[in-house]
Amino acid sequence: MDKPEVFEPTPTRPRRTVETDYGLGIVYAITAAALLAVQEPFSALAARTLSSLDFMALTQLALLLSLPFLLSQAVSRRDFAAILLDIRQWPKLAVIFLVGLAGLSLYDIGLSSAHPIITAAVLNLSPFWAALVALAVSRRSIAIAPWAFWLSFVAAFCGAMAIAWSQIDADGEVLLRDLIASLLHSKWIYALPMPVFFALSGTLVYEWFSDYDEAGAIGANFVVSALVLLPIAAIRSGLGQEASRLSEQSASAIVLLLAGTLAASAAGRLFYQLALTSTKNDNGTVTMFFLLIPAISALISWPLSRWIPTLSFIPGPVFAAGMALVSAPLIVLSFISRRAAARASSAPEASPAE
């Protein structure tokens, strides 16, 4: 039975073949985690000094500013133009945009007033949702035994939560009371499926644009997002009218926000997509390494706290234990994933000799 048309390359475009390489995919995933970790500390000041519409407008502007970086290679520019100029790709671009918008909306509704521990728990569930998304959309199961994957996930999740807990400067009894109050009264339940949309966005880009260069495909999606959101945010926020009244603190916040968005939303997203390509959309394994983000964000906050009082880094035994609990299962996962992929790739070669 023929595959659906949406998964077929255009007649003039040969199907791109990429060898599965879990070693390279893991390197890409760790790089993506490090870049994504920049977002929170670099945008903390902007989140406190700018309105939500200004924040969104500047974020979209940063995505447009990332295009020269994303399209620095000729193949990226070629595929960027090929996607945007092909009317058949427009519905796919629209779907991916709506998926991303749904995720942002759930985050705003459910986590804008939630306790930081609840926010961390929701975000750290990403590997669970990503594995389900890859299985449901691509029929792509994880490369290793399910028990090994889920055991690694539980251990790394507990480590990431320990890191988040260690960075809250409050008495344990007060922290627990605030957490229970937030659980009972905030709208965090609406944000539970929010990581699904991030994982679904990555999987859909892989499924629909795997015959195109990753940077070109991501750049095309950024253009669609900016064309819709940037005019709305700029008009409603009066960004141009406020530009002449920017304070020194606001200017610093904007610079940090632009830098963080370029690192996380542009470069981080690119390396995430490269990791999916290298592992043939093993989204669960790739996203598992995103559990390193809380630790990396905390370490990035350390030097920034000298200039941004709201940032802090609290070293201690809980943070160290969390780091160990995250790192150990990821090291094991890296090893067994590479071995499982190597066995799978060598199996067809052995069959003719039988």
UniProtKB/TrEMBL annotation:
Domain of life of the source: Bacteria
Transmembrane segments: 21-38, 50-72, 93-111, 117-137, 149-168, 188-206, 218-239, 251-272, 284-304, 316-336
Keywords per UniProt: Membrane, Transmembrane, Transmembrane helix
Signal peptide: none
Coiled coil: none
Keyword Transmembrane: yes
Protein name, entry field: EamA-like transporter family protein
Organism: Roseiarcus fermentans
